[in-house]
Automatic annotation (TrEMBL):
Record protein name field: Tol-Pal system protein TolR
Listed GO biological process terms: cell division; protein transport
Organism: Dyella tabacisoli
Family from the record: Belongs to the ExbD/TolR family.
CC annotations in GO: plasma membrane
Complex formation: The Tol-Pal system is composed of five core proteins: the inner membrane proteins TolA, TolQ and TolR, the periplasmic protein TolB and the outer membrane protein Pal. They form a network linking the inner and outer membranes and the peptidoglycan layer.
Keywords for this protein: Cell cycle, Cell division, Cell inner membrane, Cell membrane, Membrane, Transmembrane, Transmembrane helix
Sample GO molecular function, one term: transmembrane transporter activity
Superkingdom in the source lineage: Bacteria
PANTHER family per the UniProt record, alphabetical: EXBD MEMBRANE COMPONENT OF PMF-DRIVEN MACROMOLECULE IMPORT SYSTEM (PTHR30558), TOL-PAL SYSTEM PROTEIN TOLR (PTHR30558:SF7)
Pfam families (alphabetical): ExbD
Summary of the function given for this chain in its UniProt record: Part of the Tol-Pal system, which plays a role in outer membrane invagination during cell division and is important for maintaining outer membrane integrity.
Annotated membrane topology: Single-pass membrane protein
Native organism taxonomy: Bacteria, Pseudomonadati, Pseudomonadota, Gammaproteobacteria, Lysobacterales
InterPro entries reported in the protein's UniProt record: ExbD (IPR003400), Tol-Pal_TolR (IPR014168)
């Protein structure tokens, strides 16, 4: 009788204890998380070289320039730059883009001007039906920006 009671008390379990495996997995995860950023910091990559030329539009772009005080200037294709008001700009650019859907429309803003002027021009061009608008910039010199207190 005693033998059957002892067998019931100390019955063997056939389940696998996974707690130690989880602990090992978490330690490995932490090790990989710490070492991975260190491995990617100094990777030398030799990129392929190409002799491709920069892409140029066949048509001259439409350029809307925003001056420092918010005044607008319009350059349509090869025409000279002309001062214009907001309504005239919407009308002319809208008609020009409808006639030439492949033409690029660019907005050039004065560096010392307010961003609000550029934002208003972007909104008005959208109302005129222009789908894509690019922002113009000039490549700057690294030391010129540092002298002006800009990074």
């Amino acid at each position: 009788m005693q033998h059957s009671r002892r067998a019931k008390r100390f019955k063997l379990k056939s389940e696998i204890n996974v707690v130690p495996y989880i602990d090992v997995m978490l330690v490995l995860l932490i090790i990989f998380m710490v070492t991975t950023p260190m491995m990617n910091s100094n990777v030398d990559v030799n990129l392929p070289q190409a002799n491709a030329k920069s892409m140029h539009d066949k048509k001259e772009p439409v350029i809307v320039s925003v001056g420092q005080n918010g005044q607008l200037f319009l350059t349509l294709g090869t025409a000279p730059k002309e001062p214009i008001d907001a309504e005239g700009m919407k009308t002319k650019v809208g008609a020009f883009v409808k006639a030439n859907p492949d033409v690029s429309v660019l907005v050039a803003g004065d560096r010392d001007g307010k961003y609000d002027g550029v934002y208003q021009v972007l909104a008005e061009l959208q109302q005129a039906g222009v789908a894509k608008v690019g922002l113009m910039s000039q490549p700057g010199q690294a030391d010129a920006g540092a002298k002006n207190g800009r990074p």
